[in-house]
């Protein structure tokens, strides 16, 4: 727009001058008597051009200020986002540490729950002589202690345990026929019991209710018994 206005002014000035050419092609400028008049006419236009030029400069300055403000806002938003990310990272790290501490507490609690297994013969055992439980509760308790109900493998293992047992107590072991009558399995392995040492007349499944095995009396022979009855029990460690 400024270029157009300036072009108009130049054309007007050119028309305000006349010229002739002499024989030697020398340019002779004649002063046109309307010069003063023309300048007076063009003066408002020149002033308008100056005003427009100032406005363009002001507009450019405002655009520069607005752009700077927008950049400042973007920078502030980025800084705020970085602060949030830093806070979230710290919270995540704190949560990880809390989880680690909780896991340590759980492991400590589990260790405290585990009973001290005693080496007897070739294995490690815990003999419960103070608390009576049902067969199912005894299975669960031995697992909580880090072991399983006693799985007798042979006569030598039983003979090593007998001196540690109370002669008037009965003890649950892991043998049962809960799946099929007279098919006695080890709860630990799910396979048929490797060693059976029945009392005379046993197993008899009295009243069709006896499906779990305990042992008591002289020689601690085996007897099928009601699984819900409460007796003492023997746990065996998984670790040798």
UniProtKB/TrEMBL annotation:
InterPro entries cross-referenced by the UniProt entry: C-type_lectin-like, C-type_lectin-like/link_sf, C-type_lectin/snaclec_domain, CTDL_fold
Keyword terms: Signal
Keyword Cell division attached: no
Q: Where does the record locate the signal sequence feature?
A: 1-20
Reading the lineage from the top rank, the first entry is Eukaryota
Asked if the keyword Signal belongs to this entry, the reply reads yes
Outline the extent of the C-type lectin domain: 120-236
Q: Which Pfam families match?
A: Lectin_C (PF00059)
Among SUPFAM superfamilies, the record links this protein to:
C-type lectin-like
> Can you tell me where the transmembrane regions are?
none
Cite the PROSITE patterns for this sequence: C_TYPE_LECTIN_2
This chain belongs to which protein, by name? Accessory gland protein Acp29AB-like
Q: Which gene encodes it?
A: LOC117564332
